[in-house]
Design goal:
This protein is α+β, with helices and mostly antiparallel strands. The protein is built from six helices and nine strands. The chain has a domain of 142 residues: Pnp Oxidase, Chain A (Roll).
Length: 208
């Protein structure tokens, strides 16, 4: 069997050296076309003030040069950790595209008006669930949870469901963004962007 070799177009650099948000928008649009489920799913890593880490999947709801926005219950483990230690990281892995994006920075709560607007756009059952769920707390049975959902649903029957004060969004303001793409023979390509004090970006390739 002939040995596999890298072609010229496989070996040259394709990740551009500037405009990381434009590049993310392009890759995200590609993911929306090709990922079968939840192309906006992203792993969120947080840590306690004592540096104990934890990670879980969340859904990206918005992004811009200001940062990457997701929503959660601040009484949950991730919410509490972010309020105590805003340093966090995100990881997108689009398997169908063989691409990853890593983002590191500070997670800052969004304005109340922004959280209110997004909460109002959610399905009503999700709004009710935000009131019913004591996220991350012990639960004796699912029937208890379903009972709480029924109670909260009856409470707001015939009227709009307000956003709970402990439910809000965070915007991860990136200090570094790293793009990774698959190459043959594990000779992958990585480019890391680092934010400068003036708000601009510098970038460099990294060995895979």
């Amino acid at each position: 069997m002939p040995q596999r070799t890298m072609t010229d177009d496989q070996s040259h650099t394709e990740i551009p050296a500037e405009a990381p948000f434009d590049l993310f928008a392009q890759w995200f649009a590609d993911a929306q076309k090709h990922e079968l489920n939840d192309p906006n799913a992203v792993a969120l890593a947080t840590a306690t003030p004592d540096a104990f880490p934890s990670v879980r999947m969340v859904l990206l709801k918005d992004f811009s040069p200001d940062g990457f926005v997701f929503y959660t219950n601040t009484h949950s483990r991730k919410g509490g950790e972010l309020l105590a230690n805003p340093r966090a990281a995100l990881l997108f892995h689009w398997k169908s595209l063989r691409r990853q994006v890593r983002i590191e920075g500070l997670a800052i709560p969004v304005a109340d008006a922004v959280a209110d607007e997004y909460f109002a756009s959610r399905p009503r059952d999700s709004q009710v669930g935000a009131h019913a769920s004591l996220q991350s707390e012990p639960l004796d049975s699912r029937l208890t949870f379903l009972g709480r959902i029924a109670k909260e649903g009856a409470r707001y029957l015939g009227r709009s469901v307000p956003r709970p004060p402990h439910w809000t969004g965070f915007c991860l303001e990136p200090q570094a963004i790293e793009f990774w793409m698959d190459r043959p023979f594990r000779l992958h390509e990585r480019r890391r962007f680092t934010r400068l004090p003036d708000g601009g970006w510098t970038s460099t390739l990294l060995y895979p």
